[in-house]
TrEMBL record:
<keyword id="KW-0436">Ligase</keyword>
<dbReference type="InterPro" id="IPR018109">
    <property type="entry name" value="Folylpolyglutamate_synth_CS"/>
</dbReference>
<dbReference type="GO" id="GO:0005737">
    <property type="term" value="C:cytoplasm"/>
</dbReference>
<feature type="domain" description="Mur ligase central">
    <location>
        <begin position="119"/>
        <end position="297"/>
    </location>
</feature>
<feature type="domain" description="Mur ligase C-terminal">
    <location>
        <begin position="319"/>
        <end position="431"/>
    </location>
</feature>
<keyword id="KW-0547">Nucleotide-binding</keyword>
<dbReference type="GO" id="GO:0009252">
    <property type="term" value="P:peptidoglycan biosynthetic process"/>
</dbReference>
<dbReference type="GO" id="GO:0071555">
    <property type="term" value="P:cell wall organization"/>
</dbReference>
<dbReference type="InterPro" id="IPR004101">
    <property type="entry name" value="Mur_ligase_C"/>
</dbReference>
<keyword id="KW-0067">ATP-binding</keyword>
<dbReference type="GO" id="GO:0004326">
    <property type="term" value="F:tetrahydrofolylpolyglutamate synthase activity"/>
</dbReference>
<feature type="binding site">
    <location>
        <begin position="121"/>
        <end position="127"/>
    </location>
    <ligand>
        <name>ATP</name>
    </ligand>
</feature>
<keyword id="KW-0133">Cell shape</keyword>
<keyword id="KW-0963">Cytoplasm</keyword>
<protein>
    <recommendedName>
        <fullName>UDP-N-acetylmuramoylalanine--D-glutamate ligase</fullName>
        <ecNumber>6.3.2.9</ecNumber>
    </recommendedName>
</protein>
<dbReference type="InterPro" id="IPR013221">
    <property type="entry name" value="Mur_ligase_cen"/>
</dbReference>
<keyword id="KW-0573">Peptidoglycan synthesis</keyword>
Length: 469
């Protein structure tokens, strides 16, 4: 755990006592702060109190004596309207920050030169974050991985020289980190998202821009207009910018040409890496992720050879286009993290013959946007509440069955794929939330892996998780 010593002797208010909020409260207390913590959920308050956190209703405290207000990133800061605690803090002139800002201050205080890579973007940030951490770890470096990817940043080991930090940042976390200053900052892409919390796409983009604007090296994807303008703006301000693209050659930067990642320097082009044959980095979207990861690793001193070795051994991000097993010429792919059509598209575009398991709790828009990828689908196996709606969309374009449950879908898809004379993929890429049949997408993905492992003649590519529904 990182003890927040930069807050020693200060009175700090904190709201939000979920996983990251509880970790933040413990970090502040360990660093010597006087913490006043609260949550709108009485159960969360009771749990925090049981773990030794001082809890008090923030309606009744003297805000004039509070040095900082720590807000959970899951709590509205601006839209659709500020949380009631935000209004209290602002009226008292108290700064409003989050756990990533506390980490930034601790790094600045104790080890300002330790390498720190921060990653954001609408899509691909988790894979890119995991890939960077893997390359660093594979090269023998002391690596800490956390942030929005699952482990609260303040639960990591403390900053020190030669310890590398790889932190995924959501827009909510960036909004609460005014002095965010990574060694290398990555902005992969921008499409409209989280508008319920940011109001407009422009405000969402402005928040994302802060991560790269404060970076020593800004790595910016330039395949959308928002990011292209951000890259130009940061460069004009005097910052170092490395542009990346999965779609177009660049005069300067890193770009994909087929499976190859090329580096251009004032028009001179040299190959950096080839993703051909790396199953966990299939598809153009992963070419963008790999280009960003390569640029970041080179920026913090990793050799090209160590980068190439790390790419080849990357096991993939769990539940995201994850090859989990193989039976003869059929690969089984866990893409349970694809909880909407946009998220399912990369996996569907990465294989030519797919036995597709889809469905669950439907999202707005359904799967109509995936129609250009339907020719890749040999047959669909539909589960959960979305099954009938998905069947209507597929119509006569794609053969399908309504399997209802995941176990039936896996058994039937595996049997059909086994009779296919050509190489194919049995893929769980649901384009739906999981909550109709599973607790979350992780449980759904683990269930898929266990079902695959139970098939005769299966060669598993990963460890089989324990547990059940």
């Amino acid at each position: 755990m990182i003890a927040a010593s930069s807050f020693k002797g200060k009175r700090v208010a904190l709201f939000g006592l979920g996983g990251s909020g509880l970790a933040t409260a413990k970090s502040l207390q360990a660093g010597g702060a006087e913490v006043f913590a609260w949550d709108d959920n009485p159960d969360s308050v009771a749990r925090a109190a049981a773990e030794g956190i001082a809890t008090v209703d923030l309606h009744g405290i003297d805000w004039s004596g509070i040095a900082s207000f720590i807000l959970s990133p899951g709590v509205p800061l601006t839209h659709p309207k500020p949380h009631w605690t935000v209004a209290l803090a602002k009226s008292a002139g108290v700064e409003i920050i989050g756990d990533v800002e506390i980490f930034v201050r601790e790094r600045r205080l104790h080890a300002p030169d330790c390498p720190f890579i921060a990653i954001t973007g609408t899509n691909g940030k988790s894979t890119t974050t995991a890939l960077i951490a893997h390359i660093l770890q594979a090269s023998g470096r002391d690596t800490q991985l956390g942030g929005n990817i699952g482990r609260a940043v303040l639960t990591l080991e403390p900053p020190k020289a030669e310890r590398y930090f790889v932190v995924e940042c959501s827009s909510y976390q960036i909004d609460l980190a005014p002095t965010l200053n990574p060694t290398a900052g990555i902005l992969l892409n921008l499409t409209p998202d989280h508008l319920d919390r940011h109001g407009t796409t422009q405000h969402y983009a402005d928040v994302k821009e802060r991560l790269v604007a404060g970076a020593g090296t800004a790595i910016v994807g330039v395949d959308d207009s928002y990011c292209e303008l951000i890259g130009d703006r940061i460069e004009r301000s005097g910052h170092k910018v490395i542009r990346i693209s999965k779609r177009q050659p660049l005069a300067d930067g890193l770009y994909a040409e087929g499976s190859r990642i090329l580096q251009a320097d004032q028009g001179a082009v040299a190959p950096l890496a080839d993703l051909d044959g790396i199953q966990t980095l299939r598809g153009s979207h992963n070419a963008q992720n790999a280009a960003a990861a390569i640029a970041a690793c080179l920026a913090v001193g990793v050799s090209v050879e160590d980068v190439r070795l790390g790419l080849k051994s990357f096991p993939g991000l769990k539940h995201r286009m994850q090859p989990v097993g193989r039976r003869k010429q059929v690969v089984f792919v866990n893409d349970s993290k694809a909880t909407n059509a946009e998220a399912a598209a990369p996996a569907l575009s990465s294989y030519d013959r797919i036995y597709w398991i889809a469905g669950g709790l439907p999202k707005e828009g359904g799967i109509a946007s995936l129609a250009p990828l339907f020719p890749r689908i040999v047959k669909a196996y539909l589960i959960g509440e979305a099954a009938s709606a998905f069947a209507a969309t597929l119509g006569e374009q794609v053969a399908f069955e309504i399997s209802d449950t995941l176990d039936r879908a896996v058994a039937h898809a595996a049997a059909d794929a086994a009779r296919d004379a050509e190489p194919s993929a049995v893929m769980l890429s649901p384009a739906c939330a999981s909550f109709d049949q599973f607790k979350n997408f992780e449980v759904r993905g683990d269930s898929f892996v266990r079902l695959v492992a139970g098939l005769d003649g299966m060669a598993m590519l990963i460890d089989v998780p324990e547990g059940g529904k």
